[in-house]
């Protein structure tokens, strides 16, 4: 008889956003074989999950893992299984000129399932040394870098890896020229239409007005860095979402956290969530070299921030499992605990105590509960996590 694991006694959150159930999960042959109460042992190793929550493998919708190119990226392994993340999306670190190397040397070597958004800029996202200029090597500093035909050709070559496209709209990355930012946006939307893929927009300190951008986005497109602290975010001082934000959400545009080094403010998030009732569709880290040691750390820590804000735990789990899977067009493979699915499972402990948790402005909040990944299954193989 083939052996596997029986995860027993945990509080199971299936990723749907519904209430948890106290059931067991049987893992066999790399898949979820059975879910139900008090399942009998069938020769498996029993993993006692008492006191833990059991979730689908966490999915980080926003990371930078093109390690070895520039100063920006980290290894997929540093953002992955050791943090409870089984699947991740690199968001535009590579462009058409660099993606073949990204696929050959990084994506194909990762233990995690790693997918990508292709940067509309041919050179991708490069970062220099923080104490030398140019610190940001602007992917839109020349409008010709935003080249839809090369992006379309790259997508067609790597359809198994590329699930969408990305542009970063910030004046600093576009030589402070609004026309360069708009060239990037136009090329992005052209390539997205021609490939029938969604796109993700980074928009902060941009010369393109927020309303102008949001009107161009289509159902399934993703606006990231939702709670950034810069003046062109989407909320009034009291947290009320601007009308164009509400119209975009009604139209089916998705809103992603993308915490990053400069894109999550406690003040903005508290007002937007608690007063404006504008919660994220997806919770992601924007994890990279300059924030992995703080203020981001990992995806469970970012999820913890929304536990503090008052988001119900089933919705937090959904925003880090099923919702990002569907945003990537992979909802039939990842993001839910269902029999027959690939056995990607994360076990999380809710720790109670008192800790200070920073935002990107080094503002602190005192929290009394935090989420910590303990173990993770990837394709049915058990791994330990780094606290």
Automatic annotation (TrEMBL):
Xref: SUPFAM superfamilies: Composite domain of metallo-dependent hydrolases, Metallo-dependent hydrolases
Coiled coil: none
Gene Ontology molecular function: deacetylase activity; hydrolase activity, acting on carbon-nitrogen (but not peptide) bonds
Keywords: Hydrolase
Start and end residues of each Amidohydrolase-related domain: 53-349
Protein origin, superkingdom: Bacteria
Keyword Oxidoreductase found: no
Protein name as catalogued: Metallo-dependent hydrolases, subgroup B
UniProt source species: uncultured Armatimonadetes bacterium
């Amino acid at each position: 008889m083939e052996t596997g694991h029986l995860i027993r006694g945990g509080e199971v959150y299936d990723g749907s956003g519904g209430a948890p159930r106290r059931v067991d999960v049987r893992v066999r042959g790399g898949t979820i074989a059975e879910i139900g109460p008090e399942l009998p042992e069938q020769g498996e190793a029993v993993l006692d999950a008492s006191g833990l929550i059991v979730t689908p493998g966490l999915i980080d919708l926003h990371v930078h893992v093109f390690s070895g190119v520039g100063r920006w990226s980290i290894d997929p392994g540093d953002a992955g299984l050791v943090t409870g993340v089984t699947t991740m999306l690199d968001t535009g670190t590579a462009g058409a000129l660099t993606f073949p190397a990204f696929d050959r040397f990084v994506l194909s070597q990762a233990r995690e399932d790693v997918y990508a958004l292709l940067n509309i800029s041919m050179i991708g996202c490069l970062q220099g040394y923080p104490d030398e200029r140019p610190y940001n090597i602007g992917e839109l500093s020349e409008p010709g870098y935003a080249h839809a035909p090369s992006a379309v050709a790259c997508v067609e070559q790597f359809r198994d890896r590329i699930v969408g496209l990305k542009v970063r709209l910030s004046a600093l990355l576009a030589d402070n020229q609004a026309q360069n930012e708009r060239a990037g946006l136009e090329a992005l939307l052209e390539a997205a239409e021609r490939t029938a893929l969604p796109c993700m927009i980074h928009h902060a300190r941009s010369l393109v007005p927020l309303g102008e951008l949001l009107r161009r986005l289509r159902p399934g497109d993703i606006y990231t860095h939702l709670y950034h602290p810069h003046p062109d975010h989407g909320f009034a001082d009291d947290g009320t979402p601007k009308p164009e934000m509400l119209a975009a959400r009604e139209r089916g545009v998705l809103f992603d956290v993308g915490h990053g080094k400069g894109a999550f403010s406690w003040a903005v998030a508290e007002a937007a969530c608690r007063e404006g009732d504008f919660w994220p569709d997806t919770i992601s880290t924007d994890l990279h070299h300059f924030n992995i040691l703080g203020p981001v750390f990992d995806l469970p820590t970012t999820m913890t921030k929304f536990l503090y804000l008052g988001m119900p735990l089933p919705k937090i789990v959904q925003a880090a499992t099923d919702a990002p899977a569907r945003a990537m067009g992979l909802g039939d493979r990842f993001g839910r605990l269902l029999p027959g699915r690939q056995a990607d499972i994360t076990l999380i402990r809710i720790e109670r105590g008192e800790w200070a948790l920073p935002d990107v402005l080094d503002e602190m909040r005192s929290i009394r509960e935090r989420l910590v990944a303990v173990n993770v299954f990837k394709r049915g193989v058990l791994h330990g996590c780094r606290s």
